[in-house]
Amino acid sequence: MNGRTKLVGIALGLLLFAEIPLAASGEKKEEEKKRETYSAVVMVTGGALSGRSMNLNFWIDEYTVDDQVREYIKVLTQEGNDGLRWVLEKAEVGRVAPAAATGTDLAIARKLTTENGQIIRLVSARPLPFLELYRGGRSTDYPFYIFELQFNSEGKGEGLVIGAAQPEFDDKGVLQIESYGNQYLKLTNVRIWD
Q1: Fewest CB within 10 angstroms: 18, 43, 49, 60, which?
Q2: How is 41-66 classified by DSSP, letter by letter?
Q3: What percent of the chain is helix, strand and coil (3-state, nearest 5)?
Q4: CA-based nearest residue to 111, from 71, 55, 58
């Protein structure tokens, strides 16, 4: 697959676009909403930048509810990644940013409580720099960031980042996430800030 890795059922397929109880997806009454803040260290695990790291901060103001997820699935089915990107560029449920940088808006945030702890999955429309668009390479077909934060019952966390992702449906209608190249980054020392 020309250096690309196919992921079946991760991120969007398992949680972001999955039906889960509203309590687990984070729907709260208006007066109960409170910003959640997380931090992590991103470790590059392959390629020319292997071994490098940077701090990353996450702010979640609200979680995406099931009805909104159904709308996103409809857009993806009818209009593809371009249509979904256009819609997600207008959504803002939080923000992700390297330390001392502006960062980018989070468009989808989902939370699931498991018997071992919690999983938070986030999607952002990936900023496409002018030079990338000008060259028109395949990377422009992968317009999303996907983040996964996993916490055990003691609150200790780890996770991953897919730096250039493309959701698509296979011949059987199963949602798959494809990553461009080796765009996997490991998240370590994931922390919750109160």
Answers
A1: 49
A2: EEEE-SSTTTT-EEEEEEEES-PPPH
A3: 25, 40, 35
A4: 58
List helix spans (H) across the chain: 22-25, 66-88, 130-135
Exposed (0-12), middle (13-18) or buried (19+): which is 39, by Cβ within 10 Å? middle
* CA–CA separation, 109 and 93 (whole Å): 7
Q: Where are the alpha helices (DSSP H) in 28-155?
A: 66-88, 130-135
- 53 Rama class: left (phi>0) / alpha (psi -120 to 50) / beta: beta
Return the structure tokens found at 176. Answer: 């798959």
Count how many Cα atoms sit within 13 Å of the Cα of residue 98 in the half-sphere of its side chain: 5
Q: What is the pLDDT of residues 34-75, one digit of tens each?
A: 899 999 999 876 666 666 788 999 999 999 999 999 999 999
Residue 116 Cα to chain centre, angstroms: 21
- Using DSSP bridges, classify how beta strands 5-8 and 175-179 pair: parallel, antiparallel or unpaired: antiparallel
